[in-house]
From TrEMBL:
Assigned protein family: Belongs to the protein kinase superfamily. ADCK protein kinase family.
Species of origin: Sphaeramia orbicularis
Membrane-spanning segments: none
Biological role stated in the UniProt entry: Appears to be essential for maintaining mitochondrial cristae formation and mitochondrial function by acting via YME1L1 in a kinase-independent manner to regulate essential mitochondrial structural proteins OPA1 and IMMT. The action of this enzyme is not yet clear. It is not known if it has protein kinase activity and what type of substrate it would phosphorylate (Ser, Thr or Tyr).
GO biological process: lipid homeostasis; mitochondrion organization
GO cellular component: mitochondrial inner membrane
Domain ABC1 atypical kinase-like residues, every copy: 8-228
Domain of life: Eukaryota
Protein name: AarF domain-containing protein kinase 1
InterPro entries: ABC1_dom, ADCK1_dom, Kinase-like_dom_sf, Mito_struct-func_regulator
Signal peptide range in chain numbering: none
């Protein structure tokens, strides 16, 4: 739709000029259409396209300078990811397509709400969608006040992300609390998760996804030969112990015991933070080794762990059960598909 010759009053009955939320790329306004529907209008900041290109250039200079001064620190992976993802995040039509795809993909999860897109009122720099309200997923007071079960939310969030990562290979990679809202559904009065901001997704290669599923199955049950095997297959090489610890945010002792068998303690968290500072060069080396599709998964895992920590549901048995089920589904489908292909080649 062309907006150049239209006034706001031609499209909206009301438009709240005070943003509901603002970030580095855009801000969101609440508005009401002439047919009475309330919408959220995401508007890209005017100079962000040009500024982002300049930021990439500055980042490249800094990354190369750091690597020249400190050869052990190689952050080219950061630059490559920024170059790849920034144009996608700035294309709001791409964000709308991602939203519709994940809504259809996870439609069987009744607890998930993805706002509908108004395509006739959207462009590459303006995204108009259904307006939805809720509290942030880390707002414990809001959940208590509205009778929302924290454990149910944590379980559903883990189930949803396990399916995205291990089964579907299409992953929303920005689940910070501002993008994950919770509420009681106005119609059913059931707890709902509202997933917002669909600009950053990672598509996983099927073979990578299956190896990643096999690795997590080994990590959950403490199968150390399997942890080494699949960590190496995912590019970690001889840094596989570090990779397992980075991936799980658990100590090497807990990884050896099986992360589902050992509760997370404050002492272990302190150990992880201390070791992270000590092993920065090795972590930098590791991040340069592993497949690029792993990088956004590490970010996603970290954000989800932060939510679980706030909700006090980290390392809950139910999360490992759902994760294991999705991992087994992924491996079984892959195995069945491979057997079928071999059978067809043999004329069976």
């Amino acid at each position: 739709m062309c907006f150049f010759f239209l006034q706001l009053s031609d499209i909206f009955v009301s438009f709240d000029e005070t943003p509901q939320g603002a970030a580095s790329l855009a801000q969101v306004h609440k508005a009401v259409l002439h047919d009475g529907r309330t919408v959220a209008v995401k508007v890209q900041h005017p100079k962000v396209q040009r500024q982002s290109s300049q930021d990439i250039v500055v980042m490249e200079v800094l990354v190369r300078a750091v690597h020249w001064l400190f050869p052990d620190f190689a952050f080219m992976w950061l630059l490559e990811e920024a170059k790849k993802n920034m144009p996608l995040e700035l294309d709001f039509l791409n964000e709308g397509r991602n939203a519709e795809k994940v809504a259809a993909m996870l439609a069987h999860h009744r607890f998930l709400k993805v706002p509908q897109i108004h395509w006739d009122l959207s462009t590459k720099r303006i995204l108009t969608m259904e307006f939805t309200e809720g509290g942030q997923v880390n707002d414990l007071d809001y959940m208590k006040k509205n009778g929302i079960d924290v454990n149910e939310i944590s379980q559903n969030l883990g189930q949803m992300y396990s399916e995205m990562i291990f089964v579907q290979g299409f992953v929303h990679c920005d689940p910070h609390p501002g993008n994950v809202l919770v509420r009681k559904c106005p119609r059913s009065n059931r707890s709902q998760i509202i997933l917002l901001d669909h600009g950053l997704y990672q598509v996983l290669d099927p073979s990578f996804r299956v190896d990643y599923s096999r690795l997590w199955l080994c990590l959950i049950r403490g199968d150390m030969p399997g942890v080494e095997r699949f960590s190496r297959r995912l590019g970690a090489g001889d840094l596989f112990p570090l990779f397992a610890c980075v991936l799980t945010a658990r100590s090497w002792t807990s990884v050896n015991a099986g992360i589902s068998c050992v509760p997370v303690t404050d002492t272990e968290d302190v150990e992880i933070r201390t070791n992270a500072a000590l092993y920065l060069p090795q972590i930098s080396d590791l991040l340069n080794r592993i497949p690029r599709q792993m990088l956004l998964l590490l970010k996603t895992n970290d954000l989800l762990r932060g939510i679980e920590t706030t909700l006090k549901t980290r390392a809950a048995s139910s999360s490992f059960i759902h994760m294991s089920i999705c991992c087994i589904r992924a491996v079984a489908r892959w195995t069945f598909g491979s057997v079928r292909v071999k059978g067809e080649r043999l004329g069976l």
